[in-house]
TrEMBL record:
<dbReference type="InterPro" id="IPR033966">
    <property type="entry name" value="RuBisCO"/>
</dbReference>
<feature type="domain" description="Ribulose bisphosphate carboxylase large subunit ferrodoxin-like N-terminal">
    <location>
        <begin position="30"/>
        <end position="136"/>
    </location>
</feature>
<dbReference type="InterPro" id="IPR000685">
    <property type="entry name" value="RuBisCO_lsu_C"/>
</dbReference>
<dbReference type="GO" id="GO:0016984">
    <property type="term" value="F:ribulose-bisphosphate carboxylase activity"/>
</dbReference>
<dbReference type="Pfam" id="PF00016">
    <property type="entry name" value="RuBisCO_large"/>
</dbReference>
<feature type="domain" description="Ribulose bisphosphate carboxylase large subunit C-terminal">
    <location>
        <begin position="147"/>
        <end position="364"/>
    </location>
</feature>
<dbReference type="InterPro" id="IPR036422">
    <property type="entry name" value="RuBisCO_lsu_N_sf"/>
</dbReference>
<dbReference type="InterPro" id="IPR020878">
    <property type="entry name" value="RuBisCo_large_chain_AS"/>
</dbReference>
<keyword id="KW-0479">Metal-binding</keyword>
<dbReference type="InterPro" id="IPR036376">
    <property type="entry name" value="RuBisCO_lsu_C_sf"/>
</dbReference>
<dbReference type="InterPro" id="IPR017443">
    <property type="entry name" value="RuBisCO_lsu_fd_N"/>
</dbReference>
<feature type="domain" description="Ribulose bisphosphate carboxylase large subunit C-terminal">
    <location>
        <begin position="372"/>
        <end position="471"/>
    </location>
</feature>
<keyword id="KW-0460">Magnesium</keyword>
<protein>
    <submittedName>
        <fullName>Ribulose 1,5-bisphosphate carboxylase large subunit</fullName>
    </submittedName>
</protein>
<dbReference type="GO" id="GO:0015977">
    <property type="term" value="P:carbon fixation"/>
</dbReference>
<dbReference type="Pfam" id="PF02788">
    <property type="entry name" value="RuBisCO_large_N"/>
</dbReference>
<dbReference type="GO" id="GO:0000287">
    <property type="term" value="F:magnesium ion binding"/>
</dbReference>
Amino acid sequence: MSSIHEDLVRSLDSKQAAYVNLELPDPTNGEYLLGAFHLVPGGDLNILQAAAEIAAESSTGTNFKVNTETKFSKTMNALVYQLDLERNLVWVAYPWRLFDRGGNVQNILTYIVGNILGMKEISALKLLDVWFPPAMLEQYDGPGFTVDDMRKYLDVYDRPILGTIVKPKMGLTSAEYAEVCYDFWVGGGDFVKNDEPQANQDFCPYDKMVMHVKEAMDKAVKETGKKKVHSFNVSAADFDTMIERCEMIVNAGFEPGSYAFLIDGITAGWMAVQTIRRRYPNVFLHFHRAAHGAFTRPENPIGFSVLVLSKFARLAGASGIHTGTAGVGKMKGTPEEDVVAAHGIQYLSSSGHFFEQTWTKIMETDKDAIDLVHEDSAHHVILEDDSWRGMKKCCPIVSGGLNPVRLKPFIDVMGNVDFITTMGSGVHAHPEGTNAGAKALVQACDAYLKDVDIAEYAKDHKELAQAIEFFQKT
Ligand SMILES: O=C(COP(=O)(O)O)[C@H](O)[C@H](O)COP(=O)(O)O
Ligand SMILES: [Mg+2]
């Protein structure tokens, strides 16, 4: 241990010392969930003292050593096990026996990004990356219905699933709403989502919206001969209403695979996410992350990263989560944030900001399973049979502010096409309207797949030419 670290350890009081072990033999021995935090002390404490207070408050402790602790309770203490003083980074190991049994994600978050974000002892505290041991992954659902299942339903492979959000965000009647869906679908789009606040507004009653969407989808499928998908926001005031909305959709005659359930995962909550995952394992669970910016924006010193949010969404069973456009669209974001998050949830094994996460529940002893694991051409680890052994993939959903002109620039940053893109203004602001907007999106995707520059391709694809003219000038 370096002398600086020895000095810091000597500065700990007896309570703090019980939450630090800079010589923890093997943090990856399977007992611990690991977290890497950026931490700047906020008061008189040095970084190790502050980190110890964080470890205490986010596991078994409080601000004073209590007389009621026991020999066993001390074994549940989180432990600060690594420091990087240059970058103000601290690593904490959480005995995952601390967490509620039965695969409860909100319980973990209550510990590791709960009270500690409010403590006086920090002026900056951000959970940048998290690592789950294989034995822990066994306890969590992971996704049920994946984007691969959606691809099979749509018969769409080797390209992004092309989607939109109906705009205006709110204010259309249910019939007007469904008409926009129809225009997009017959323009060649695959996937339409409710916008994240769409619910049971008096001017667009939920039951009528569902019914009109079904009619529009049937018409579009008949005319195009292609399957279509609609993602319904089922977030609601309470679980009964949420389930009622799900059942309304299930009983409206939609083909299995043609609908997804959208949950505003942060404002509706993790229990809503996991309830839907468990009640409807064969429905694509679409995690919209409205309000995530309060925690994840790169300039926010207190919160957690897009990668952390996305990893927990996969653990909870989201089939897809919005992971951002890496700054190509309208939202704040960078490739280091958004693309790392996207790769962190769509592969079986990937490098995060600080941890290599392998999403297999394969135990070392499960030798026959190991040879099912191999690498694809991009050296991403994939599991031959994406069965119980591996936690299924979670699909990046890429949206905010994209348009046909920005599709290729985003793909170039993303490095693959295995995502769903949902463009709102990028379709409905097209000078010739939604149907032309959809055609422009399809044409931009075709140009990409044919490796033709969109300006070239636009020469004999008018909707794309109009989109370039319109979106490039803005
Ligand atoms: O309605 C939209 C996008 O509409 P538009 O395409 O008109 O911007 C989504 O709610 C944002 O994608 C959320 O952002 P993110 O996807 O980053 O979570
Ligand atoms: Mg939206």
